[in-house]
Write a structure and sequence with these properties.
By secondary structure, this protein is α+β, with helices and mostly antiparallel strands. It has helices spanning about 65-75, 95-105, 110-115, 115-120, 130-150, 195-200, 210-215, 225-250; strands spanning about 5-10, 25, 45-50, 50-55, 60, 80, 90, 175-180, 185, 190-195, 205, 205-210. The chain has 2 domains: about 5-150 and about 245-250, no CATH class; about 155-240, no CATH class.
């Protein structure tokens, strides 16, 4: 992760009681609790890099099981190429697989249907034989990755407000959510407005994203850049929720393949 790379963050659960939300992505070194909250029994985060570099960083190779690649080629009738992206009509690239998997793991029905498995083991990946569905999921996964790495151009289109001037300090008993007015207060007077409850409650890795980011900054004054960053996080969360619903509508049946089983191979 010291060079250009992309990685899955997930975990092997320690507790069978939580709903699956333990998947995220990173393009840099990640904290061991970034996608798994140890305090709730979720366990440490495991990082799965997309590429493995040589010791001198002069070359890299995809960190993908060859049997899995062969399975994908057979089901989709595409040729795997050792490039970031293929054309998805005759070829498939490394990041295409990453984006597809990332979209699938953000499907609410997938998480619910296979919840008992996801509580005890790493996520397993099904490969569709429908090329149109695959292509759509790749696009959605790519958008999710762009949002979660805070690189998407839509992040600058704020959907919230920060209307009042003041100390910008996050006080001890704050943040606090006021559902009636859809406000996230950072102190007695200042707040982020127009934050829907679904956004406020959204979790990644057992963390309530919009709450935890502010909680970690208690007793500190938010800078102008941090105020903007928080609003970008809200945009990213809102669009993530929308895309997850779109993925759910797109996938109309499980298993995704006529073969009645998960891929037996570790993917990444």
């Amino acid at each position: 992760m010291l060079r250009s790379n992309l990685a899955f963050l997930t975990h092997r659960p320690h507790s069978p009681t939580f709903e699956f939300s333990y998947v995220f992505c990173s393009d840099s070194i990640a904290d061991q609790c970034s996608a798994g909250n140890k305090t709730t029994g979720a366990g440490s985060t495991y990082l799965f890099p997309l590429y493995i570099y040589s010791n001198d960083y002069s070359s890299k190779k995809p960190n993908i099981n060859r049997d899995f690649i062969k399975d994908v080629e057979t089901r989709l009738k595409l040729k795997f190429v050792d490039k970031d992206k293929g054309n998805l009509s005759t070829t498939i690239g490394v990041k295409d697989l990453f984006y597809y998997i990332y979209a699938l793991l953000h499907c609410p029905t997938y998480r619910q249907r296979y919840s008992e498995f996801l509580k005890i083991e790493y996520p397993r990946i099904q490969i569709t034989e429908d090329l149109t569905l695959f292509h759509s999921l790749v696009q959605m996964g790519e958008e999710l990755v762009s949002l979660h790495l805070l690189k998407s151009p839509v992040l600058s289109q704020f959907i919230t407000s920060f209307p009042r001037s003041g100390t910008n300090r996050v006080q001890g008993k704050y943040p606090r959510y006021e559902e009636e007015n859809e406000r996230v207060y950072i102190n007695k007077d200042q707040y982020f407005g127009k934050v829907e409850r679904e956004i406020w409650n959204f979790q990644v890795g057992g963390y309530q994203v919009c709450y935890k980011w502010l909680k970690d900054r208690r007793k500190f004054e938010l800078t102008y850049d941090e105020i903007e960053l928080y609003q970008k996080i809200i945009v990213a969360t809102s669009r993530t929720i929308e895309i997850m619903k779109e993925i759910d509508e797109l996938i109309d049946k499980y298993p995704l393949s006529k073969r009645e089983k998960f891929s037996s191979q570790t993917t990444i």
